[in-house]
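Bumping with the actual sequence this time:
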Amino acid sequence: MNGSGPSVTVQDLVKRFGAFTAVDRLTLEIRKGEVFGFLGPNGAGKSTTIRMLCGLLKPTSGQATVAGYDVARRPEAVRQNIGYMSQKFSLYNDLKVIENLRLFAGLYNVPSPVLAERIAWALAMAGLKGQETRITAELPGGWKQRLALGCAVLHRPPILFLDEPTSGVDPMSRRQFWDLIHEMAAGGVTVFVSTHYMEEAEYCNRLALIFRGQIVALGTPSELKARSLRGELVRVECEPLGPAMELLPSVAAVQDVAMFGSALHLVVTEAAQAIPTVRTRLEQAGIRVLAIEQIRPTLEDVFVSLTTGHGADLRGGAA
């Protein structure tokens, strides 16, 4: 890695495709050994940003340095100092596990004297020891993702970019994958990971919430939840839901209303006072209240609060 400064610095980064601005003046800094989360809905600009930081896409304007190298001027140097996993499984399904590892070792110019040790390390890290001769296509989804991670870090890069790495993987495999991420970060590797899974965002040291190409919030998960909701949160289960959603914004204590599955989340000034008022107003309108309680805010609540009225859909993929 060139220099001793931050692993990644971004200043006013912009990417336009014709008249469409995919990334709009992004500015951030990522420290060595940090697990940095990039959270946002479909079309927010996550994958476009990662491709620019990996030297795969030239910025329209602004500056970014990765491992001390300018991504626009030195893209090859950037690529030599990073590992990259795209959101689509990028290995060769018709090859054996060991063949994929040897192929990527060659692509990353892993020196011959350390090749056997690096492959053994990748197999152990990914939990694939004893599976070397299996055809990659036969592996379960979680194992494939761990193999892809092993291939991406064979050359021991100081910085790792993971673009939606656990998309389509079962929850248990996602948790195991994140354990690997934290092991690498503990060893000094900087990890930049994009996701639209809210529970995964909780595993990051810091987060940038991105919406329509712009960062709308930046901080630790705890900081974002503490400062982004100006009030307390109440969950309401009631029937019918639609009329309740229309009625509740008119209640003085209610600052905001959002639908979460089959319930409503209300941002209120003070939950203890608001709950009986809300219950009474709903029942007076003929709406049956099934449950109402104060809850702790999640990052999804934070994101919805920050993007209310803009049509954010957190259930989509990356872009």
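The tokens above came from a reply further down the thread. The longest strand covers residues 20-30.
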